[in-house]
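Quick entry between incubations.
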Amino acid sequence: MKTLRTIKQVSEYAGEQVWIGCWLNGKRSSGKIQFLQLRDGTGYIQGVLVKSEVSEAAWESAQQLTQESSLYVRGTVREEPRSPSGYELLVEEVEIIQLTEDYPITPKEHGVDYLMDRRHLWLRTPKQRAILVIRAQIIRAIQQFFDERDFTLVDPPILTPSSCEGTTNLFHTKYFDDDAYLTQSGQLYMEAAAMALGKVYSFGPTFRAEKSKTRRHLIEFWMIEPEMAFVDLEESLRIQEQFVSHVIQSVLTHCRKELETIGRDISKLEAIQAPFPRMTYDDAIKLLQENGFDVPWGEDFGAPHETAIAEKFDRPVFITHYPASIKAFYMKPDPGRLEVVLCADMIAPEGYGEIIGGSQRIDDPQLLAERFGEHELSEEAYQWYLDLRRYGTVPHSGFGLGLERTVAWICGLDHVRETIPFPRLLHRLYP
Ligand code: 4AD
Ligand code: MG
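Done. Structure below.
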C-alpha cells in the first residue's frame, strides 16, 4: 500500500514527491497541459501535467478522468503563490480507482429539491464541506467552553415518557406496550444531574414534530443544554453571552478559509463580543408597537417580530421576563411580578431568530405541583421531577442553544437545511 499524504499536509512536503488519494473536482486542458482540480476532503489542490514531461500512460489516464472519478496521484509538491492553497502538484503518475459516469451534480445551478434528493452527493461541494467544517469547530468550541469551566458532560435519554416543552409537537413512538416520545429537550434530566454534579451540560439530538415549514425549524436538531445549581437568571445570562462570544471568536480564529468559501461577511461576526444588550418583554412589545406591529401584551413573538427587534442591534439581544402564560411550566415566576417569569431568549442578529431559550427554574415543590394542573400535565409522570424539589431544592438555572440555528447564523445561510449533514424536515426523511 502506498503511503498517502493529505492535501492539508502538502505544505510540509514542498519539493518532495507524494501520493494523494483524491477525487476529480474538475479539469481543463490546453492540449499540451492538463490542469486537474483535486479534492480529498481536507482541501483542494491543482494537479498539473505537462505532456512533454510525463509518460504517455499518465497523460492518457488524466485525459480519461471525469468529474468525481476517484484516483491516486503521485506528484511533486511545488510552491505556487497564485494558488489559493499556496501549492500545486506536478503530477507524474495517475492511478484511476474508478471512472465516474454521469455524475448528477454538475457545476451548473440546480434547484434545492434536486440537491436535497442528492444530499449524500451535495455534501461534496466546497460550500457544503465548508459548512460542515465550521459546524465541527462550533461543537469543539462549545465543549471546550464548558469543559474549561468545570461543567460535567451528562447524556440525557432520547426516549422519554413525558414532555418538556409542551405537548403539541411531541414525536410519538411505541415503547413495547407503552407510549413514548423522542426527547424534545434533555432539560428535566439535566436538572436532576445538576443536583448531583453542580454544573452540567448535555449535547445531543432533540426532536420536535413541527408541522410548520420555515427556514428555522428542523424536526431533528442538536441542542447544548447547560444546567447550573445555585445560579440565578442574571448569572446565567452572563455565562450565555460569554459562551456565544467564545464560539464566534473560535470560529473566526480557526475557520477563516471556510468563512471565505461561503462568502460570509466576517466584520459582522467580529462585532460579536460580550456583553449583549438586554430588553424586557414589556419593552420589546413597546418597541414593536412603535414600529407598526399590532401585537398586544401577552402574545408570543413570531419570526418577523424577532427580526424587527434584532435589527436594532449589531450583536445578539436578550429578551427577558416573558408572560408566564406563553412559556413552559417549569419557569420561575418573578417574585416581584408573578405574571412574568425569570427567563430569557437570545435573539441572533441579521434575522436568524432565537438561538437560546433559558430560564431560572421553579424551586418550590408546591408551586411546581400547581403548574402541572395548569398545563394539563399528568403529575404522576413527573413525580421523579418533583423529588428534585422535595429533597434539597436549590435555586438553579439553565438554557438550551440550538446548534443548527447557530450554524446558520455564523455561516450566514438562508435556511437551516444546509447546517446539518442529513436534515430531517417536514415531508423529508430521504436520504
Ligand atoms: O426554546 P426551546 O424550546 O428551549 C428548551 O427546549 C429548553 N428546555 C432549553 C433549556 O432551558 N435547557 O429550545 C431551545 C433552542 C431554541 O432557542 C432554538 O435555538 C432551538 O433550540 N430550537 C430549534 N432549532 C431547530 N429546529 C427546531 N424545531 C427548534 N426548536 C428549538
Ligand atoms: Mg424557545
